[in-house]
Amino acid sequence: MKTKTFLFLCLLSGMGFIQLSAQPDLPTGTKSISFTQEWSWGYSTPVICNGVQVDYITGYPVAHVTAHFENGNFVFSNVITHGDVYGEHGEVFKLSELDKNLAAVGTTWHFNLKGDRGNHYISAVTWDMINDPFMENLVIDKAVCVENGKK
Asked: Could you tell me if residue 71 is inside a domain?
């Protein structure tokens, strides 16, 4: 259950920037919009290693969003998030995250957290939105936990 919570929070972190219903009417044709925004409501996610929560990360990193539309319909977006975030035990992490969202298909997100105390967490996750609308079968493509410089 903790793993699903973790992955769900990661997904929301990437998708939270795109509020499609709030987008203005777009002209016909193809158009991309791009903007940079600080996480005004904050970024937070648990860190899970081998099924155990080892930290909880919070902060206000900056995200750059590029959304692509065709004839006014959302097609895909890329969200690049970076900045300092903080662990519950006082460790400062450099966050680097890339989320790719495809309309009505799925989302992949990759994040890299490097801590000032030697902890390093890397993960890649895929969600098939069509066949798994409730995020019950997320695919963890990669998960690496190096704690205090040791695997």
From this structure: yes
Nearest-angstrom CA–CA distance, 70 and 55: 41
Inter-residue contact 113 to 83 (CB < 8 Å): no
pLDDT digits (tens, 9 = 90+) for 37-65: 766 678 887 787 887 888 999 999 998 88
Which structural domain range is residue 104 located in?
2-146
Number of domains observed in the structure of the chain: 1
Residue pair 45/14 in contact (Cβ under 8 Å)? The answer is no
Tokens of 118: 């030697």
Instruction: Tell me the C-alpha distance between 151 and 147, whole Å.
Output: 6
Determine contact, residues 14/107, Cβ cutoff 8 Å.
Answer: yes
Query: Containing H/E element for 124?
Result: strand 120-128
What is the per-residue burial (b if ≥16 Cβ within 10 Å, else e) of 18-52?
Answer: beeeeeeeeeeeeeeeeeeeebeeebebbbbbeee
Per-residue pLDDT for 1 more than 90?
A: no
